[in-house]
Prior knowledge:
Blueprint: H1 2-14, E1 19-23, E2 29-32, E3 35-38, H2 46-56, H3 59-68, E4 70-77, E5 81-90, E6 93-101, H4 115-122, E7 127-132, H5 139-153, E8 157-162, E9 175-180, H6 188-195, E10 202-205, H7 211-222, E11 226-231, H8 236-245, H9 252-262, E12 263-273, E13 280-288, H10 291-299, H11 305-311, H12 313-316, H13 321-330, H14 336-342, H15 346-353
Parallel strand pairs: 7-11, 7-12, 8-9, 8-10, 10-11
Antiparallel strand pairs: 1-2, 1-6, 2-3, 4-5, 5-6, 12-13
Amino acid sequence: xxxxxxxxxxxxxxxxxxxxxxxxxxxxxxxxxxxxxxxxxxxxxxxxxxxxxxxxxxxxxxxxxxxxxxxxxxxxxxxxxxxxxxxxxxxxxxxxxxxxxxxxxxxxxxxxxxxxxxxxxxxxxxxxxxxxxxxxxxxxxxxxxxxxxxxxxxxxxxxxxxxxxxxxxxxxxxxxxxxxxxxxxxxxxxxxxxxxxxxxxxxxxxxxxxxxxxxxxxxxxxxxxxxxxxxxxxxxxxxxxxxxxxxxxxxxxxxxxxxxxxxxxxxxxxxxxxxxxxxxxxxxxxxxxxxxxxxxxxxxxxxxxxxxxxxxxxxxxxxxxxxxxxxxxxxxxxxxxxxxxxxxxxxxxxxxxxxxxxxxxxxxxxxxxxxxxxxxxxxxxxxxxxxxxxxxxxxxxxxxxxxxxxx
Length: 407
């Protein structure tokens, strides 16, 4: 029985699939290039799934699964690969979903990620950086590339809290301590509290699922640590609103203040099929903690963030999904049809492809992202118009001091 299941894992890896879905009473299916395809016409029996579950779980694990009807864990099949696994029960029968995790961390360039900005965020000394997207959009892989860059470039202690551990890191310049929920720690909140006594420079939280975890992560960022985490949100604006919505109304102003002080970047991504070849590439939206962005966060003007990140493209490297999709189309990596399908606003993407876009925000010209001097504008970028002088008797608007959480 088990050998038949292992053969399905081999097929998944050979076909460069990302996920394997096994359900008693159904044929096995895989996700390949984002699409669900059958791996076999043979229907799996309860005995198949029981043999697999018994192989993966020890005694206490089987007891937890019997009580909760779900379990998260990592599994390694020699000669095949490493997988993140979710065991579950559906319609009274056992099922499981496996995500293939590569043995080595791929490079940012190999994944077509915006490496300049991600490397800059990875080398921050403090603050909060979030990677967001739907399930299966590559969040864990993007975080792994950032941790790997730290490991190669900096002498830091990195503490990761994961459920389960996906990529296994080996120390280079950094020391990386990896803790798994339900094995090394009871939950994310307990691990975050304990991490403050483990001399961390960087804390990676696998996922911020509730207000308690968000509060602990914000506190860690406020006390001078770099915190990396993920959320299941589709863009930067929704990410900010989701964090705020975790809290009751009377606490939301305080959370906005915390975000304005510590949030240094939101990297939202979605995978798009490659043009004329197998595989997918990420379209990436990037929001950076510029002075105007921090002011918007403090004042609750979250709906203006989408315009701010688009206007900061030439000077900071922030970008909207449409700007990212347009570049992928121009580079021939994706088709126009797939780009329009992935866009939040296809009409705006058409305008972006024609070179019609909004100008650069005046308020962000003097400062670069994360408190650094603004980089030289990209070739062909139109310099912003000078800011208008204030009217007589009207005080200039106050600004948050950019970089207060950095220096």
